[in-house]
Write a structure and sequence with these properties.
The protein is mainly α. It is built from 16 helices and 2 strands. The chain has a single domain, classed as Alpha/alpha barrel (Glycosyltransferase). Strands 1-2 form a two-stranded antiparallel sheet. GO terms for molecular function: hydrolase activity.
């Protein structure tokens, strides 16, 4: 009888130890299989960015100006270089920018649209390191332009824009889901550089208005009111935008609790729709849609930020993060390019349209959030 009891006890203890070991391994965001750690992967993707021509995700043609996917990858590479103290990489990223003050001036976009305004994030982020006044002036020009009525607009447009400014919203407001990364990023950076709270306060106010206007009851977002689909990367911009903004907001900010509640609601829904392989689909709630990596990486990034900052319960969300990171790496080739990235996508009220979007490899829409993830995991 004693032997039986002891056997049961030892067996139970063994099961408990195995469960504890599995739980620890599942929530471990520091130790990774060889070659799959964020420093190795981040360096691979960052170096790939440095060697890539401008706007390399587009067909081989001279670009008219720098576009937001390149800006987002550039920002991610800077943050990765910063967290790994890679001064060589940081210098290369700065050198890539310098021609914009001279031979490549024509590639600097005009700040008349959210997709162009986010460009200001890069010079402001580089200014933190080099203290070069040119970088400051350029970055702040983009940040200030979002809340300054464009003088060269037609009169009818000026009236429309002024209505937004009167509500303390940027005149670039349009209630598209990607806006909440493009607007909040450059405003947050302006706040960090200047210490002037007007930048972060107006970004937070803008976010709250967007959330009140377009977030669905399940925490996710339609691509647009006339495109009622939970498109992956579109939702990724919202997830990343809220994460970035929450790290910058003071706990006493009047809008922080509203943004946090919306963030938590979204993360809960994303966890529910995460697939067994660790990733998410081109249409989040449609299991028949294909695996899409750019949105998946953005969701992983938002969850990493939540776990690292204590917004999300580590035991509940770290396993989702670990599974997503390891799954994403399987889509990266030896050159550092990630596959299964949805091509640029405008809104359309057509389910099949989203399923038929081209899947690209090396598109910076996907390269960028992999760099964000690598930085956040190492932070």
């Amino acid at each position: 009888m004693k032997k039986t009891i002891l056997s049961i006890l030892f067996f139970t203890m063994g099961i408990f130890c195995i469960s504890e070991l599995y739980a620890r391994e599942n929530t471990d965001l520091k130790n990774w299989p060889k070659g799959k750690d964020p420093e190795t992967i981040g360096l691979l993707v960052a170096n790939r960015f440095v060697e890539s021509p401008h706007n390399s995700f587009r067909p081989p043609a001279p670009p008219k100006s720098i576009t937001y996917p390149e800006v987002c990858a550039w920002y991610g590479a800077i943050k990765f270089a910063e967290v790994t103290n890679n001064k060589v990489l940081l210098k290369k990223l700065e050198q890539r920018f310098l021609p914009f003050f001279d031979d490549e001036k024509h590639l600097v976009p005009r700040p008349f649209h959210v997709d162009y305004s986010v460009f200001g994030t890069v010079p402001l982020e580089l200014y933190k390191h080099n203290k070069d006044q040119r970088f400051y002036d350029m970055g702040m020009r983009f940040a200030d332009a979002q809340w300054t009525l464009p003088v060269d607009s037609p009169e009818v447009k000026k009236n429309e824009y002024q209505k937004f400014l009167d509500q303390n919203l940027t005149w670039q407001t349009r209630y598209w889901i990607d806006d909440m990364y493009m607007i909040t990023m450059v405003q947050s950076k302006a706040y960090h550089i200047t210490g002037d709270k007007k930048y972060i306060e107006r970004a937070a106010h803008e976010m709250v208005i967007y959330l009140d206007t377009i977030q669905r009851p399940n925490g996710l977002f339609f691509h647009a009111p006339d495109a009622p689909f939970f498109w992956g990367r579109g939702n990724g911009w919202m997830a990343a935008g809220m994460s970035e903004l929450l790290t910058s907001l003071d706990k006493n900010n009047k809008d922080r609790s509203t943004i946090m509640a919306s963030y938590l609601k979204m993360m809960e829904s994303l966890k529910k729709y995460q697939r067994p392989d660790g990733l998410w689909g081109q249409l989040i709630d449609k299991p028949e849609s294909w695996v899409e990596t750019s949105g998946s990486a953005m969701f992983a990034y938002a969850m990493i930020m939540g776990v690292k900052n204590g917004w999300l319960d580590k035991n509940e969300y770290a396993p989702s993060v670990r599974k997503a990171w390891l799954a994403l790496i399987d889509y990266i080739n030896e050159d550092g390019d990630i596959s299964n990235v949805c091509e640029g996508t405008n809104r359309k009220n057509d389910y099949q349209y989203y399923l038929d979007r081209k899947q690209k490899t090396g598109d910076m829409h996907g390269q960028a959030p992999m760099l964000w993830c690598a930085w956040a995991l190492l932070k």
